[in-house]
Amino acid sequence: MKNSIEQHVWGMTPEGEAVILYTLRNANGCEVQLCNLGATLTSVKYPDRNGKVADVVLGYKSFEGYYNDPACAGKSIGRVANRIANGRMTVEGVEYNLETNNGPNHLHGGSHGYGTKLWESRVEENRVVFALTSEDGDAGYPGEVNVEVAYDLDDENNINILFVAKSDRVTPVNLTNHTYWNLKGEESGDILDHELRLCCSQVLEMNDVQIPTGKHLDVAGTPMDFCDWRRLGDDIAAEFNHIKDFRGYDHFFVLNDWKPNILQKVAELREKTTGRKVTILSSQAGAMVYTGNWLSGGCPITKSGGRYADYAGVAIECQNYPDAVNHDDFPSVLLSPEETYCQKIVFNLGLE
């Protein structure tokens, strides 16, 4: 079987617009599904070491679930992923007050961020491209931004995600994909037995409301030392850097030897009973590791007809630093009209 892309209408919005589900398949038995609501990665299916196929990412039974999804499962996040302290930022000498939708902070572009919007979509040969125009003033941000997110599934079992954006004014842009992985299968329980390895020897120190203090901490010898394989559940209640306060990992890890526009390995996630392993590469400066600490109670009906509990999936969100717009010493998230924002994330579906 050769690679293929199918599309069908999943449903209609209240305004009468089509919600489209795309299915990408390769010759190795891998299948990826995408949706134009939120430019979302809704499903990833591939065989384990015994040939048993499972869907290994969290998601919902109907498209309506993606409208009412506080977990942002699989979505393309923007205009600025992660948190902006107190919803305040100054750009070009002008102070902006953004929605505070996560305690005192602005999170993931606000409650009407890119993950909540219906994107235009098209098939280009072997890939699906989603496009969005974010107007000047959208969610309180300055400048009109035109964004495209392209997905393809290749013969090496790579899910390639390319983010491209242009703005007509200086504005912060920090895009990511928010897929939650459970390599046993999305309905199989928690990910606390999964093991993670990161190419990150430092983590950002956080304050008690999940904003970086500006200090980098060495992870060596701490519960955040994922430089070699570490089980996610082993230290999920540790005191170090507010892990216990956050009910698990929800921290930004700094990529070793990061250089702009260079694709580098960031992480490997594995699950021993199935043999599945996902290797993650990115051109971004680091990754937010979130162990699904607050999934219970708020998520819609899942693909398998249930409800997700806490720790049902782990998100490894490749992105720029949180609250970077308020930290001059962090890599800049400001995009000017003379520049093109271009970042890539790769999820390689493997076995060991």
Short précis:
The chain is mainly beta. The chain is 0% helix and 42% strand.
How is this structure best described in words?
The chain is 0% helix and 42% strand. It has strands at residues 4-12, 18-25, 31-35, 40-47, 53-55, 76-77, 83-84, 88-91, 94-97, 106-107, 120-124, 127-134, 145-153, 158-167, 171-172, 176-177, 180-181, 195-198, 202-206, 212-218, 230-231, 250-254, 264-271, 276-282, 286-290, 314-319, 334-335, 341-351. By secondary structure, the chain is mostly beta strands. The strands form seven sheets. The protein has a nine-stranded antiparallel sheet, with no helix packed on it. The chain has a six-stranded antiparallel sheet with strand order 17-26-25-22-19-20, with no helix packed on it. A five-stranded antiparallel sheet has the order 1-2-3-4-5, with no helix packed on it. The model has no long low-confidence stretch (mean pLDDT 97). 46% of the residues are buried.
